[in-house]
Design brief:
By secondary structure, the protein is of the alpha+beta class. The chain has one domain: Orthogonal Bundle (Cytochrome p450), CATH 1.10.630.10. 50% of the residues lie in helices and 10% in strands. The strands form four sheets. It has a five-stranded mixed beta sheet, with helices on both faces. A hairpin with a 4-residue loop joins strand 1 and strand 2. The relative contact order is 0.18.
Length: 410
Amino acid sequence: MDSPFRPAAPDFLTNPYPAYAELRAQGRAIPHPPTAQWLIPHHADVSTLLRDRRLGRSYQHRFTHEEFGRTPPPPAHEPFHTLNDHGMLDLEPPDHTRIRRLVSQAFTPRTVERLAPTVRRLAAGLVERFVAAGGGDLVAEVAEPLPVAVIAEMLGIPEADRPLLRPWSAAICGMYELGPDEETAARAVRASLEFSAYLRELIRERRTRPREDLVSALIAAYDGESEGASGRTARLSEQEMVSTCVLLLNAGHEATVNTTANGWLALLRHPEQLAALRAAPRALLPTAIEELMRYDTPLQLFERWVLEDIEFAGQKLPRGSEVALLFGSANHDPARFDRPAALDLTRADNPHISFGAGIHYCLGAPLARLELTASFRELLDQAPGLRLAAEPVRAPGFVIRGLAELRLAC
């Protein structure tokens, strides 16, 4: 039987949610030979496995590639893997715990709240220019610049250098798709080398002239020593610093960019929901942001490695297997959501999985919510006649679901 999971097929990329319903009907852990993965489509199972320590985002903290039955990546890809493998997203404890503890100080509720005036000012300025021009591409002119500017501000990246960041990030994130080709890998390697060199130079400069920014704070953690809970010193290597900065940029804007574009497209295709939001923006925005993240999920799939033989949902998952946790399917599971195919901005019971769960739960979730609230509020206030000006252009990837272009008129 042909699988409904066809992540390269144009119709699937346009709308994967009907295929997910077929997958959920097939079972809880479904082998998928084309991608050599076990597909996990149900909300309860995705949530459980995100927290199961028998699975890991990486296996290299316990096994070599050969011991785990995996082929090492080609040597030509090494710059990408060095950068990627030293970031929190692909580390497991104790290194993940150490780095997350250091970085989390920049994302406390109090710290994020202090950023609120800056985020609102940036959002207001971007939307004002967008409206003054009569509209344009919402992705390029509002959705992308806002979170990139916020993370760059936190890191202390000079304004003149910020146009470099999004192209580097896009090239690196291409490697998170299923089965990236050699051209994608080559772009990611170039971006990894260039971005790493840039950050090492910035670190050298900040070490001489520290400022009130996150790079300077990470340098202090690198140069100093603080006693960790286990009695070990909690320090950060320079490579971990570089990888952390790259991860904060990549993870710190992808969800916001794609929720902004996917969300506005959903609202424009559901005019009754948009009208309700316009009528009561302050009351509805908190639940609306959560619903838009659920309704068209910005990260569709998250992978985990099986670190030891386990039995799950009546299946034996051997060590070395890979599971594909289908966030988009989980967020449309009728066992957890009433009328999951409906866009309901008043949905209060909304445990969507868009920010993950467990130890890898998105550290920047409060900041993403702040940015989304600010940009949606400004567009609601300043652009009451916002409408589609052209057919949207979907970005080619599946794992990271978004739009390449969303042209709107005001």
